[in-house]
Specification:
Blueprint (H helix, E strand, L loop, with lengths): L3 H7 L6 H7 L11 H22 L5 H12 L1 H10 L10 H5 L6 H19 L1 H17 L10 H11 L6 E8 L6 E8 L4 E7 L2 H17 L1
Antiparallel strand pairs: 1-2, 2-3
Helix pairs in contact: 2-7, 3-4, 3-7, 3-8, 5-7, 7-8, 9-10
């Protein structure tokens, strides 16, 4: 079965295989690609995540809910979910994107994940697409502390350092580990003052930077 592993990971089996193929096709591959499906999927994602947050946090005002939703549907989060699904293995990319590692580029992964949501919507309707989105995002919603700032760790670290009039951090790519189709990035967050070095590992360079920054924030707040 076409992309059976991916469909199992999503918890959804396509009736129309052409929609799945289109959702996995980047514009560099051909004129029939996933850009229009991404447009649909973005709306399905935002609506579904909004409802999940609305139900999970009945006492939060609109502004706080909007902030939480923005954090959940941003490119980094989508790319991390796509990486966990090994979505890059199934993408159809043009030769140039293949050579430049497009199968692990966060923007391409995030767009393809939204395209899958759009394809499921066309294949079986909103409820089916919603179930898939909730299956992927409910664990993230459950981890949310509504009292936290909601800022990503890199932004939070920058603000901590600026408030103390300290130099900004330096993020250094140390290397990668794993096979080419399933790589993890290793990044150090280096502070000159106070002297501090924390390390993060993630499926994208940005995710690794965020993890390193999160550890630095925790160390500074002790």
């Amino acid at each position: 079965m076409l992309n059976q592993r991916l469909q199992q990971a999503l918890g959804y089996t396509f009736v129309r295989s052409d929609l799945l193929t289109q959702a996995l096709t980047h514009r560099s591959y051909g004129s029939i690609n996933n850009e229009r499906l991404e447009f649909l999927g973005d709306s399905v994602l935002n609506c579904t995540v909004a409802r999940a947050l609305y139900d999970a946090f009945p006492n939060l005002p609109e502004g706080s809910l909007s902030r939480l939703r923005a954090n959940l549907v941003r490119q980094e989060t989508l790319a991390d979910i796509a990486a966990s699904l090994k979505l890059g293995d199934s993408l159809r990319l043009g030769e140039g994107e293949l050579k430049s590692g497009g199968f692990r580029r966060p923007s391409i992964l995030a767009d393809a994940l939204e395209s899958l949501f759009g394809a499921i919507f066309l294949d079986a309707g909103f409820e089916a697409a919603q179930r898939v989105v909730r299956g992927l995002f409910d664990p993230l919603v459950a981890q949310i502390d509504p009292k936290a700032s909601g800022k990503d760790p890199k932004t939070e670290l920058q603000e901590i350092l600026q408030s103390r009039k300290l130099p900004l951090p330096d993020y250094r790519l140390i290397g990668t580990q794993g096979e080419a189709h399933d790589q993890s990035f290793i990044v150090d967050c280096v502070l000159a003052k106070p002297v501090l070095n924390t390390r993060g590992v993630g499926k994208s360079r940005r995710a690794a930077e965020q993890e390193a920054a999160r550890q630095a924030c925790a160390a500074l707040q002790k």
